[in-house]
Amino acid sequence: MSRAFEDLVAEAESVPVDGWGFSWLEGRATEERPSWGYARLMGERMASASVALDVQTGGGEVLAGVSRLPAVTVATESWPPNLANAAALLRPRGVAVVAAGDGFPFADDAFDLVVSRHPVATGWVEIARVLRRGGVYLSQQVGPGSVFELTEYFLGSQPPGMRHRRHPDRARAQAESAGLEVVDLRMESLRTEFFDVGAVIYFLRKVIWMVPGFTVARYRPRLRALHDRIQADGSFVAHATRFLIEARKPT
């Protein structure tokens, strides 16, 4: 039996959105995973590194899943709620969790591995600075027009240029401009489905750049219409884009 609109809204508004885990969406939304398996690749790189940095670690969930960490592992995060979660999760494993934004409080040539999953922005110059010669940057990033169907549902048709932000070709150019060699670059489009309006609300509360300024009160009529649409169709379908980039500092 389908749940009432008001019940779904109340539940989704009350659930905490700290950290960067999405376990609350289990059974309520699905997203295909990229074929390259970022967590596996990251674990492989970590196992052979000696000094590693995880940039914008969020709540530390991805790094915590690595079975074998380097002797020295550091994670940065700038958002206070995420920082507290990351510290609680990672410090027991010997990871130094540091409050840092775009600039890194680390010496030049400090790390042989830098990783980042879904960074808001990539500071290529800083990454190149802290990497040792021969060091590697590995990152899975949100690609252009990701889940854009949801953005346009609430905001209407967007300028064509909006769909091309965060393009992997731009990431390649920025990496090379910072003096790095791109050794791997792949992108995939991944089917994403939301099975109830509560899942949409939770997602937009957490991924705040999808619909800037989103609140239930502001978009209640659109949410109600979306609820009815999901009830009729079974889900709201969108497509996430992800790209993998691996870059090396020349020796």
Automatic annotation (TrEMBL):
One of its GO terms (molecular function) is S-adenosylmethionine-dependent methyltransferase activity. Pfam families: Methyltransf_11 (PF08241). InterPro entries: 23S_rRNA_MeTrnsfrase_RlmA, Methyltransf_11, SAM-dependent_MTases_sf. Gene3D superfamilies: Vaccinia Virus protein VP39. Keywords: Methyltransferase, Transferase. SUPFAM superfamilies: S-adenosyl-L-methionine-dependent methyltransferases (SSF53335). Residues 53-137 form the Methyltransferase type domain. GO terms for biological process: methylation. PANTHER family: METHYLTRANSFERASE, METHYLTRANSFERASE TYPE 11 DOMAIN-CONTAINING PROTEIN. This is Methyltransferase type 11. It comes from Parafrankia soli. The lineage of its organism: Bacteria, Bacillati, Actinomycetota, Actinomycetes, Frankiales.
